[in-house]
């Protein structure tokens, strides 16, 4: 689906993104990050898992987002057992080297588990259906007491990269003080698993139809950043979760620019 070249992000000047639209000085160096769009089939079509971030968070505080976060240097550990497309395939799709592709995919699995309780792992032939034995490990991952590689090795688990698909590539605008070079993945909720909101980074979470989430944003009940809004717009076009996973995607890096116009911030999307 073709992305629009311009998007008006309606936030009053003095709050959130709008405050930072005129930031001075050299731009911050983006940190590599991974985001996972979890989808499932609901009674009325595709549903997506969304989290409302705690207002005090230094990045995207108060925003409604998909699970995700920055890459930990330990996510690049080559000892992680792996099933599915190799890092070289992910590197070709996301336009990076194999080491970063491995780290990004492992970060996607780790962050999804930390923030939603969904673990995209198992062995070479089966996917986990019961993650309850790993509740303590989930907390230890979030506090960085253990690495993903250490956890998986101890539990005898394998990263199931075949459960993920590449979706998009966004870079935080240069005007932002905290910037991320984020690869977006999409994954279907594994059978038997449940997503929850047991994370210190979210005040609430849950499943919602993409069109309903956009309606909430338009009516002021939630705040969405442009990548989230536009991704939800794309997802609203699909009938089933499998349709989402099977959709052909051309991954192009999108680098928005923020332009302040009176009481609005206009987000101009530039593909690179």
TrEMBL record:
<dbReference type="GO" id="GO:0016818">
    <property type="term" value="F:hydrolase activity, acting on acid anhydrides, in phosphorus-containing anhydrides"/>
</dbReference>
<keyword id="KW-0378">Hydrolase</keyword>
<keyword id="KW-0464">Manganese</keyword>
<keyword id="KW-0460">Magnesium</keyword>
<dbReference type="InterPro" id="IPR039121">
    <property type="entry name" value="NUDT19"/>
</dbReference>
<keyword id="KW-0479">Metal-binding</keyword>
<feature type="domain" description="Nudix hydrolase">
    <location>
        <begin position="30"/>
        <end position="230"/>
    </location>
</feature>
<dbReference type="InterPro" id="IPR000086">
    <property type="entry name" value="NUDIX_hydrolase_dom"/>
</dbReference>
<dbReference type="GO" id="GO:0046872">
    <property type="term" value="F:metal ion binding"/>
</dbReference>
<dbReference type="InterPro" id="IPR015797">
    <property type="entry name" value="NUDIX_hydrolase-like_dom_sf"/>
</dbReference>
<protein>
    <recommendedName>
        <fullName>Nudix hydrolase domain-containing protein</fullName>
    </recommendedName>
</protein>
């Amino acid at each position: 689906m073709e992305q629009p070249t311009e998007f008006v992000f309606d936030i009053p000047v003095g709050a959130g993104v709008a405050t930072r639209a005129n930031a001075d000085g050299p731009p911050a160096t983006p940190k590599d990050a991974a985001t996972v769009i979890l989808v499932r089939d609901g009674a009325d079509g595709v549903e997506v898992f969304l989290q409302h971030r705690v207002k005090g968070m230094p990045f995207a505080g108060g925003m409604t987002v998909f699970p995700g976060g920055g890459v930990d240097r330990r996510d690049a550990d080559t000892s992680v057992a792996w099933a599915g497309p190799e890092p070289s395939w992910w590197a070709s799709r996301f336009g990076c080297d194999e080491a970063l592709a491995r780290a990004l995919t492992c970060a996607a699995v780790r962050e999804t588990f930390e923030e939603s309780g969904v673990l995209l792992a198992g062995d070479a032939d089966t996917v986990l259906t019961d993650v309850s034995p790993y509740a303590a490990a989930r907390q230890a991952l979030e506090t960085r007491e253990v690495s993903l590689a250490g956890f998986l090795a101890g539990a005898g688990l394998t990263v199931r990269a075949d459960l993920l698909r590449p979706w998009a590539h966004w870079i935080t605008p240069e005007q932002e003080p905290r910037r991320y070079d984020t690869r977006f993945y999409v994954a279907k909720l594994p059978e038997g698993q449940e997503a929850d909101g047991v994370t210190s980074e979210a005040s609430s979470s849950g499943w919602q139809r993409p069109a309903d989430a956009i309606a909430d944003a338009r009516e002021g009940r939630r705040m969405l950043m442009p990548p989230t809004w536009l991704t939800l717009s794309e997802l609203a076009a699909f009938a089933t979760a499998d349709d989402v996973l099977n959709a052909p995607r051309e991954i192009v890096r999108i680098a928005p620019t923020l332009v302040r116009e009176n009481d609005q911030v206009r987000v101009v999307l530039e593909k690179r």
